[in-house]
Here is the input.
Amino acid sequence: MDVLVLCYTYFTLVEELFFEIGSILILAAILAMVIFRLRQPLILAYIITGAIVGSSLLALTQSQDIFSVMSKIGVAFLLFTVGLGLNWRSFKDVSGIALATGVGQVLLSTILGFIVALFLGFDIVSSIYLSVAFAFSSTIIIVKLLMDKEEIDTLYGRISVGFLIVQDFIAILILLGLSAVSGGKTIEQVFIGIIIKAFVLSVVLWMIATRVIPKLLSYVAKSQELLLLFSIAWCFLVAGILVFFGFTMEVGALIAGISLSGSLYQREINARIRPLRDFFLMIFFIVLGTQLRFDQAITMLIPILVFSAFILIGKPVIVIAIMRLLGYHPRTGFLSGTAVAQISEFSFILLAAGMASGHISETLLPFATAVALITIAVSVFFIEHNDPFFDRLRPMFRWLEPRRTLESEKKRKVPVVPVLLFGYHPIGSVILDSVRALHQPYLIVDFDPEVIRSLSKIGEPHIYGDVSDESFLDELEADHAKMIISTIPDAVVSSDLLTFLKNKKFRGISVVTVHIKEEAQLCYELGASYVIIPNALSGKKFAEILKSNRIQKKAWLLDRKPFIE
Here is the structure.
């Protein structure tokens, strides 16, 4: 009899959970369709769904533990796919700026945030916790948005991901230090232990990834289903091992992906994991929305709005200032700055640790949740439309723009050349040999200081500048060139360049780069001779076309047809 009661109870709970998840997903789908109609990011629909089904309103999320686990799985899959797609050669050249920006932004945001918290009436300990917690930004949200926009491999995308990873490691160190103080250990003991563990685990994982994993993958790849199962199991295995040794699940999932990133099956694994990632990540944002408590948020409305304004405006300004001091164009700083205009999941972990230690009040958690929802909603909109925003705000940044040259270019007159190559990394470097084969004077234009310095070292003709700046194009006399090639995969930049050339009645060959066919069609309507779509056409293929067509405009019109029909 007891067994029958247990079985009945079990199936009843399963049915309740099924309908609970089902009702939440139905509401999320309805809201997502509305948000999509309004041309807003779907993340907003998921967060609003969470706020509606949370305890403050409908109270549909009774199985909190299950939803929490599902959201963590989404985070693990996201960072696993990030690790799979990481091109360390691409990130190596931005490691310096990522480190400087990551550390500098956290330090300055903490100092200014502490002042803001004291001004709002928080006590010293609470001010310290809030300022440190709010200094970090969400790697999960930014990486997802950059991947959705296909801008993770752009200059600002690589810099943003780089300094967000730096921030995550700083957050981990702070959490480890806090746990050391709470557990009676010295900070030195904890950090030395972590360094030793990190070194040993790195060596072991590197040996497994280079000697064992390739053989395993060649076996499991015989079955697509087995490949998917193995990949998921590997993600959980590595993440579990690192959690056991004191690291976070997020770091473990990221390293698990990195260990498979060099395999022949990386793209196949990524494609099969992506639907699972998107589903569980949707649950993550819904769970985030459920944490909002409207009654408590209303009582602290002024501090919430003030801190939200500081995060949305102050943190990006800090990033712009740091990157400008390091020689980067305000455009790159602005686009990267939009990536820090929200708070991180580590913020909640840090505040929860402070509450568990008895250092701060529990009222700070709903306060932080309200700030998180406001900043995430606004920053998502900023990031989705960061290029148009910069174009509108550009007059404010004119005084920060460089005089077109770096130190290495001073006293150097810019020649008028037949061939202009805008953007060196990554497509520009691939087609450079073909540009040389044209036997025409050429000039490489880029606004990444590291690229400019490397070009200077190897003796390539170059200049530092922003292709979207009309005054710069006028100084360059771009309309007098015979061929202009822009490898910057940005529809706004491409449109601005083509509009400039159209207004100047440019008669040469204009080649630009975008992400999707619809953007390519728009560029052709603006007069582009050819449009590179990286997903459809590799740099190598374009190099072949460049070799065969040379400076013959009619040939370009024929070659572009297969990619727009």
Notes: The domain at 407-563 is CATH 3.40.50.720 (Rossmann fold). The CA atoms of residues 56 and 294 lie 6 Å apart.
